[in-house]
């Protein structure tokens, strides 16, 4: 999408006119114009020069923004690899400059100048005439002089606010009248009619007809002309200030972009502007400093505050190999990093680009307002003309009829209609960005709240995506440390994902690392190797059962583990089962709560997984989903989503490359931020925090934004439906109600201000349940305590095993019969629980239940004719 800055727009009629003009340019596939940010997004192959020419021919100005052309799929993947240049800081600076509030200072100066002359005008036109306020004696009875002074002061106010007339009549000449046209016509008509009355009064005074003079004095609307312009300027200034606040979130993101970086060059630290940082540069960050670009830690460790990107205030521990992002804060340690993404490719720049792109797009609901805005101004001018004609035909004076027509012109507000949707979209996007929820387009922000079914990919979405040891069940006579040591020796040579969980626990607990010989991965999910001359076996229940006898008790325990969604891994030493280690992809701490919240919102939750029915059902029960669809192959997710769409609007939540087709097929695709770039590209919504609890938060935000848009549109339509008949004097014959043009101008000013202010209320809408954070923290604490308890117990056993396990060197053993003989006599000792004997290694490892003297063990072996030592 190419983005342009458009100048000269003042209301929804302007944006509608620009949109129609650009849409007619050959090669333009779609065009959306934002009155809020004075920007335009254009998709297609049309040349920028042709687009700009079309805007200028429509009576406005346009220029191409200094921003990259975003793409999807492979294009974005190439960008994300960090090879896309380093102009991001310049882009951010340009975007920040574009969002700078230039309107408010100009409008403030105009307002102050207008008020100065208006107060003098009101003193003479109303203060003196209505309340007898004092004026110089020569002036008091010279009505023509009073009229000329009012003419002069009004002319000055009109000159100060000439922009309304230049823009209004220019748009009228182009056949596209806008809000400025209404203001210019209303104020201009008041001024022209009052000038005409002044000439008539001058003629009457020359003839000495003082009755006529006083009559014409009451036909002056100079103060109305000046007041209309001043009040509209007040409204414009309030609107500009409020509109500026709607982009605060985007501005705050831009301000986070670091300006400099400390690089290592020739062994020296050099501070350079951020624009000079290139991919693979080495940079350092001290405690308290912002990380300048995306990178990976080469040396050091620290706690990094990522609140700027994710909204999460709790610092994240980072060490060697971990990624870091630009604009996050290094809080504790000194770290040395390698730059991986610079400029416009950093995570921060991509967030800014997403929010900017969303602001440049248009929500479907805005089309209603656009259609109305396109015919609104011509319709108002027609109503004003008819109002004047009808009142003249009913016998009212020209002044009365003109006042009613002017009131119709100045009370009508196309601005409120035009701002109703974009201000809410901008604020909603800002709230999302601050909390780590990114909506790529205005359409996705509007449509997310309408979903009826949420399909969740299991791995990495409901679960952590990393298997973890959940249970250690040693066989009788075997300690947990012995079981883990044997499993570690086997699994460290395996590349299976479940093996990594066993290895990770072993490394965390610090068990002894032993090397197995003759390692082999066997068909049927099995591993085998030789440790200390004894064969070790590891694998599934089916594999181990084919090699040794597994007791009914152990099989029962394995079935219970499987029922709970865990994978039991069996391990044997020689012909003896030594225990079971259960591994599972653990459910994220916040997943059950997030799923409950979705269900409370009336949304059906479906889990998709490639697991077997039993495992999938167990995880589904724990997570609390409404439906589990198991055995779904990677290429089958898209088909499942297609089937679910027949039952309602579907949102798909996923993180992997194989989720991309399903994310694209769904009505709304939601990507977990820690997932792959391809999944993020295919999605409509990106969750930066990678937490499932952000899914209901995104839906709440979408619904709140849509509700706010409905409120704004209702107010805009209601205001005009009530205001225009009142201004036209429809109720005058019945109730005597008529509206002074000045009050009409005030109402017009306040209508836009009210719409923008209502949109700003979205900043205070709670998108997360208050209890959710507490429950999530409690679950997290419980999981942490369980993991710590398991590690502590194993470490304790490890310490105990140092004193309860002894290794004897035995010489003279020649065969397995010798092994059996030594094993038998050692295990006959009451203090020995078990003995692992190997004639190949010439060792006997004994596990003790009580302390026994080394001499006793040595004598027991030597009595059998062998030589032993410890």
- Strand order across the biggest sheet? 14-26-25-24-15-22-23
State the distance separating the first and last CA atoms: 77 Å
Helix content: 40-55%
Indicate the radius of gyration in whole angstroms: 39 Å
Set out the fold topology.
Layout: E1 2-7, H1 12-23, E2 28-34, E3 39-44, H2 48-57, E4 61-64, H3 74-83, H4 88-99, H5 103-131, H6 137-140, H7 143-160, H8 162-173, H9 179-206, H10 210-217, H11 222-246, H12 248-255, E5 260-265, E6 268-273, E7 282-285, E8 294-299, E9 302-305, H13 307-310, E10 316-318, E11 323-324, E12 329-330, E13 335-341, H14 347-360, H15 366-393, H16 398-411, H17 414-434, E14 437-439, H18 442-448, E15 453-457, H19 458-462, E16 463-474, H20 480-491, H21 497-509, E17 517-522, E18 526-531, E19 534-539, H22 541-545, H23 552-563, E20 567-573, E21 576-587, H24 591-600, E22 604-608, H25 613-623, E23 627-629, H26 637-644, E24 650-654, H27 660-665, E25 668-672, H28 677-682, E26 685-687, H29 694-728, H30 732-735, H31 741-760, H32 770-804, E27 805-811, H33 816-827, E28 832-838, E29 843-848, H34 854-862, E30 867-869
Parallel strand pairs: 15-22, 15-24, 22-23, 24-25, 25-26
Antiparallel strand pairs: 1-3, 1-4, 2-3, 5-6, 5-7, 7-13, 8-11, 8-13, 9-10, 9-12, 14-26, 16-21, 17-18, 18-19, 19-20, 20-21, 27-29, 27-30, 28-29
Helix pairs in contact: 1-15, 5-7, 5-11, 7-9, 7-11, 8-9, 9-10, 9-11, 9-16, 11-31, 12-17, 14-17, 15-16, 15-17, 16-29, 16-31, 17-29, 17-31, 18-29, 20-21, 29-31
